[in-house]
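Hi team,

Filling in the usual template for the complex we talked about on Friday. All components are listed, including any nucleic acid strands or ligand strings, so the model treats them as one assembly.

SUBMITTER: L.P.
PURPOSE: interface mapping
COMPONENTS: three
RESIDUES: 326
SEQUENCES:
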Amino acid sequence: MECSDLPLSPSLIESFLMSSPPLPQLTEWTRYENKLFENALAEFDLDTPDRFEKIASRVPGKTIDQIVKHYESLVEDIEFIDSGHYPIPDYVTIDELQQEPDHQASKQSGFAKGSTSGRNCDRRRGVPWTEEEHQLFLLGLRKYGKGDWRSISRNYVLTRTPTQVASHAQKFFIRLNSKGTKGRHRLSIHDIRSVNSASKPLMSGNTNFKPIAPAPAPAPSPSIHTPPMNFFPAAMRSNFPISNISNPPTASERRVLDSVPAPFGQPAFYNYNGEGSPALNNYSGADMNYLSNEFNAGLPSNTPMNKATFDHSYPPDSHHYVMHSR
DNA sequence: AACTCTGGATGGACCGCCAC
DNA sequence: GTGGCGGTCCATCCAGAGTT
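RESULT (copied from the run log):
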């Protein structure tokens, strides 16, 4: 397929929704925030009472007004697409379009104009995987197995689409199988084969290791499902995506949590999206008590959210651990 | 500088599911 | 049974970084 022949595919729409249109009148939306927004949008349909309030509660740091404006801007853009105008993912500015007549013409004609060779297309360089993302990938791989990239993407590597996860997995397994068959290998993120085990020697102990890319921009926010790795004792870090929190933090609580430094702040508390994950069913009640104590000990003394327990008795299937915040 | 390697993105083939 | 659709796998492209 030529690059100029761009169908309105689901992946296109997804990338459109995932991108952060730099609308000047709005505050910046990160990919992560867009993902939260997208998930909340899917969860609360048009008939949901107080829809935008509920969506706002799922997107930390955004006001209801910002949510409404963001929604309206997306609706405008989607209508723009539906009308036959395809906005390229980079959201080039009007000025840029006006300076590139060919570019503009190809857009206005639908998609296919001139159809230069695909090699001439601007194939955007992707964002390198971070070590954290790779660790989450390994956790997801352990949990769902090879092939269920969708689940891994949805429940572990939230910052990557299933296609991206699959692509990453492809390289990972190629790397895995090629180990030893070639004389030399550069160290890469794919040399991390298990959670925790390799990261230290590879990243910090090996002075030859260099990041794949220059230090990536700091992630907009930690994964919604996974608390910081150093929050838990090593023996428990292997798979601990907190799946449910029974009481989503209130706005005031969230402000407090936002002020709490990692690892006791936002990451562990914003996992209240209700998606069940049986990943915690290996842990005993004692483990949960330990986590509660660890968690409570990390909270500042003046936080109103000073009592937390991990409850593995709810719901009845015992596969869901719920962190009670009061 | 030229070559090699890495890794994200992408297109196409293939497969399974589902509605008709 | 068949066609459409969605998803996955695999091969490939290619920019960028590392190596010689």
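MY TAKE: The first helix of chain A runs from residue 10 to 18. The mean pLDDT of chain A is 46.

Thanks, L.
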